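User: Here's a structure from my thesis project, written as C-alpha cells. My advisor, Dr. K., wants to see whether a designed sequence matches the one we expressed. Can you design one independently, without my sequence as a hint?
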C-alpha cells in the first residue's frame, strides 16, 4: 500500500513509518510546514519517500492520512483528488480540543466522507465530532530499551514552547518543582526559559532540539521524569520516558490519568504531594529504579509498537476497502 501523509509530528510519525507500506512525504524547496519531507532529527526507514509537490498529481497512492484541516485543500489542489471521495482518507487528530473542551466542534464534524482517528480515548470523549465516524488508535512507541541509570540527581521535563503555551503545560509549576530538585527541560524553544520564569541556571537546565537518540540518552541519566501538563494530548515524551525506565510524576489530567499507574511514581492533582514525590525520588535512587521498572512494564503493555501498527493496519485496510 502507498500512503500519502505530511510530516507533521516527528515522534508519532517515527512509529507509524515502522509499518509495512511505502510512505509518500510531500516536500517543498523551503521544507516549510506544508512540505517538510523526511525528518532531520529522527531515524526514518527508506520506505519514507520524499515526493516533490509538483510531482504529486502524477504519483499514485492508495490512501491519505490527513493531520491538519488545511491538508484537505492541499490534497485537492496538488493532486486533483477529493479526500474520502476520489481517494480513501482518514483524518488523524493529534490534539485535545481547545479551551472550551467539552463543546469544541471538530473541523471535520460536519462531514461523513473522512473518519476521524483520535490518539487517546480522552480526546475522542472531549471533541464534538458530530456525525463524523470516529476511531481511537492509541500511541505506540519504538522501544528505546531500558536505559535508566538515574546517575544525575535531577528531574527531567520534556515540553515544546513552554513560554508560549504557559499554564496549559504547567509553566507556572516549574519554579516550585525546581525547588524540589534541579530541572532539565528538553524541547523546542526552551532557551531563555529559566530567565522567563525567574529560575537560575543552576536549578534549570535548557536542552533544545536534541536528536531523539541523544535525548533518550540524556533523559535516562536523570532520576525522575516530570509531566506538569494541565491540558494537552498524551505526550509522547512521557511514554518514551516510561519505556526508558524512568519513574514518573505527573498531573492526573487528560489521558495521563489512566496511562500512568500509581506504581510508576506519583499521579495526582495535589501539587504539594507531587512536589514532595519529586523530592523523594531524586533522593532515593533505589525507589526511583523500582518505580521506573513499573513504568516501563506499564508502557510496554499498553503502548507497544506491535499493537499500534496492527491497529493502524486494520484501520487502513478497512478504509481502503470501504468496509
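Assistant: Designed independently from the structure alone:
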Amino acid at each position: 500500500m502507498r500512503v500519502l501523509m505530511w510530516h507533521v509530528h516527528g515522534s508519532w510519525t517515527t512509529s507509524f513509518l515502522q509499518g509495512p507500506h511505502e510512505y509518500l512525504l510531500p516536500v517543498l524547496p523551503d521544507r516549510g510546514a506544508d512540505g517538510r519531507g523526511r525528518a532531520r532529527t529522527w531515524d526514518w526507514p527508506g520506505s519514507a519517500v520524499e515526493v516533490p509537490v509538483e510531482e504529486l498529481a502524477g504519483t499514485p497512492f492508495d490512501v491519505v492520512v490527513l493531520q491538519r484541516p488545511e491538508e484537505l485543500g492541499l490534497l485537492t489542489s496538488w493532486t486533483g483528488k477529493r479526500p474520502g471521495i476520489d481517494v480513501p482518507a482518514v483524518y488523524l487528530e493529534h490534539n485535545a480540543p481547545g479551551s472550551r473542551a467539552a463543546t469544541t466542534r471538530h473541523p471535520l464534524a460536519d462531514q461523513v466522507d473522512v473518519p476521524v482517528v483520535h490518539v487517546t480515548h480522552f480526546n475522542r470523549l472531549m471533541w464534538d465530532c458530530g456525525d463524523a465516524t470516529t476511531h481511537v488508535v492509541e500511541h505506540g512507541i519504538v522501544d528505546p530499551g531500558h536505559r535508566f541509570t538515574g546517575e544525575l540527581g535531577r528531574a527531567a521535563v520534556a515540553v515544546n514552547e513552554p513560554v508560549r503555551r504557559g499554564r496549559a503545560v504547567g509553566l507556572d509549576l516549574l519554579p516550585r518543582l525546581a525547588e524540589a530538585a534541579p530541572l532539565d527541560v528538553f524541547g523546542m524553544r526552551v532557551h531563555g526559559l529559566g530567565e522567563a520564569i525567574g529560575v537560575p541556571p543552576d536549578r534549570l537546565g535548557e536542552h533544545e532540539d536534541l536528536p531523539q537518540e541523544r535525548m533518550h540518552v540524556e533523559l535516562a541519566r536523570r532520576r525522575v521524569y516530570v509531566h506538569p501538563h494541565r491540558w494537552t494530548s498524551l505526550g509522547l515524551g512521557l511514554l518514551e520516558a516510561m519505556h526508558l525506565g524512568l519513574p514518573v510524576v505527573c498531573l492526573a489530567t487528560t489521558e495521563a490519568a489512566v496511562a500512568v499507574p500509581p506504581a510508576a511514581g506519583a499521579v495526582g492533582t495535589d501539587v504539594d504531594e507531587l512536589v514532595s514525590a519529586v523530592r523523594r525520588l531524586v533522593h532515593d535512587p533505589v525507589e526511583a529504579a523500582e518505580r521506573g521498572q513499573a513504568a516501563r512494564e506499564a508502557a510496554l503493555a499498553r503502548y507497544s509498537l506491535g499493537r499500534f501498527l496492527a491497529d493502524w493496519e486494520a484501520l487502513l485496510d478497512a478504509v481502503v476497502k470501504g468496509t
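When you compare it with your expressed construct, this may help: Residues 152-302 form a domain with the Rossmann fold fold (CATH 3.40.50.2000).
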